[in-house]
Amino acid sequence: EPDVTIVSGLKDTVVAEGDDVTFRCQVSYENARDVEWKLQDVALQNNEMNEISVERGKIHTLTLRKVTEQDIGTVTFRVGPHTSTA
Asked: Which end of the chain is more exposed for a tag (fewer CB within 10 A), N or C?
């Protein structure tokens, strides 16, 4: 299996409280395994507050819904040994 790398990393984002915010990270190969999203070092799961998806096979997205002050912090995307933060 080829080593998947991050082609386009996360971008820092400012958003108003109560709004949704989306982070995108592009990887080098489709169907990458061993992918993880974190907020403040806490692993995120796909649920009603966090939408985790993959667009066109290579673009991994995380949407945080109706953010609050408690959501302030570092978002981390990891694929294998590679990470990107915003």
From this structure: N
CA dist 82 and 30 (Å) reads 16
Q: Which domains does the chain have, with CATH numbers?
A: 6-85 (2.60.40.10)
Output the 3-class SS for the chain.
CCCCCEEECCCCCCCCCCCCEEEEEEECCCCCCCEEEEECCEECCCCCCEEEEEECCCEEEEEECCCCHHHCCCEEEEECCEEEEC
pTM above 0.90, yes or no: yes
